[in-house]
Amino acid sequence: MSEAIDHIVNDMTASMKRAVQHLESELTKIRAGKATPQVVDGVYVEYYGNPTPLNQVANVTTPDARTISIQPWERNMLGPIEKAIIASNIGLNPQNDGNFIRLFLPPLTEERRKELVKRAYGEGENGKIAVRNLRRDSIEQVRKLQKDGLSEDAAKDAETHIQGITDKYIAIVEQHCKDKEKDIMTV
User: Fold this and answer.
1) Is the four-CA dihedral 165, 170, 176, 179 of positive or negative sign?
2) Residues 157, 66 share a domain
3) Alpha carbon distance, N-terminus to C-terminus of the chain
4) Are 117 and 167 contained in the same domain?
5) Regions of the chain short of the pLDDT cut 70
C-alpha cells in the first residue's frame, strides 16, 4: 500500500481507538449498583467562580460497595458540592454531616437494571456509529486517491483492509456492551 493509504489507515485506527476509549469512559458512568468514584466524574462545582471537576476540590472515595464519600479540601465547599451533585442529575441524594458528603447507592431493581442495560447498549450503538463514520470517511479518502491516479486494485485492497479494521472495532464495542450487561445484571 502507498504511503497515503497507510496514513489514512493509521489516522482511522487512532480515531477508532479514541472512540472505543470514549465508550469505555461512558460505560463507567453507568453505575451497576456498585459505588465507584467515576459516578461523580461529570459533576462540576462552582469554585471561586469557575466550574471545576469535583475530584479537583474534594477527595472522592468508596468506603464500601454502596457508598461514595466526598471530603472537600475546604469546608466552605460543602454547600456548593451538594448543590452541584443535585444539579448533575446522577440520581443520588447527598447526605451532608458537616465534614463529609455521602452518597448512598440504592440496590437496583430488575426494571432499573434493564434500563441501565438499554442505556449501555445505546452508548454502544453511538460507539458503532462513530466507528462506521470513520470507515466511511476513510473509504472516501481512498476513492479520492483513486481519482488522483491510485490503481483500482490498490483502492479495493485498501477498502478491504479498512473494512477488516472496522469489523474488529465493532466487535470490541459489542464485547464492551456485553461485559457491561453482565456487570449490571449480576446481583
Assistant:
1) negative
2) no
3) 50
4) yes
5) 1, 31-33, 187
